[in-house]
Amino acid sequence: KAGVTQTPRYLIKTRGQQVTLSCSPISGHRSVSWYQQTPGQGLQFLFEYFSETQRNKGNFPGRFSGRQFSNSRSEMNVSTLELGDSALYLCASSGDRVTGELFFGEGSRLTVL
Amino acid sequence: AQSVSQHNHHVILSEAASLELGCNYSYGGTVNLFWYVQYPGQHLQLLLKYFSGDPLVKGIKGFEAEFIKSKFSFNLRKPSVQWSDTAEYFCAVSDSWGKFQFGAGTQVVVTP
Q1: Cα distance between residue B23 and residue A54, in whole Å
Q2: pLDDT 10s digits, B37-84
């Protein structure tokens, strides 16, 4: 069974640009969540999607948005990039809302110059 | 709102030493508890989890954790670490809605 796949793995952008990151969950998983990981801050929850609907949202500005498609693949978008957006963005999928175990991808490392 | 606090940001110890990482959470409702590990260059993976039942849970690679409800704690332990246990460890809590909160992580370095 293939794991969670994130693309691209690395990208460099400049301030003011926008970026779109993609996540393909484990086959059969309908829940996809996104996290921002930075040194010393751990994982900060961005949002979670289930069956194309945003179910939970973290405390991030509106520049951060996401969506989920009918095949459960998800994208997140960050507009008007700031230097502080440099981070590892992790996607996780889950197949069971009750047990809630998350399966993570390897992440997309974004550097904003 | 939920919060998760990990007691140490960095831990350095020698092989064969015992490891204990502290984790406390604040949340008024029913929670599920997890420890995840991130080995260098690898993705986060589950070490162990607690949902209900025996508060002492055993995970992979000889790790165990004890849920103490009265202390809102879920500490991770390993009696004898190996060099390969060098990694970052994250404690996490999820609520009945499936919303997760992660701690800031503890970087563990095991020296030969």
Answers
A1: 29
A2: 999 989 999 999 998 899 999 999 999 999 999 999 999 999 999 999
**Which of A102, A103, A109 best tests the B interface by mutation, with the highest count of B CBs <10 A?**
A102
Burial class of residue B10, CB neighbours in 10 A (0-12, 13-18, 19+): exposed
- The predicted-structure confidence for A37-61, as pLDDT tens digits, reads as follows 998 788 999 999 999 999 889 999 9
pLDDT of amino acid A52: 93
- Inspect the interface and report whether the beta carbons of B98 and A31 lie closer than 8 Å: yes
**Minimal C-alpha gap between B81 and chain A (Å):** 23
Residues of B in contact with A98 (CB under 8 A): 98
The H-or-E segment that residue A104 falls in is strand A103-104
Placement of tokens 């693949």 in the chain: A73
| Interface residue of A43, A88, A103, A104 to substitute, partner B, most B CBs within 10 Å | A43
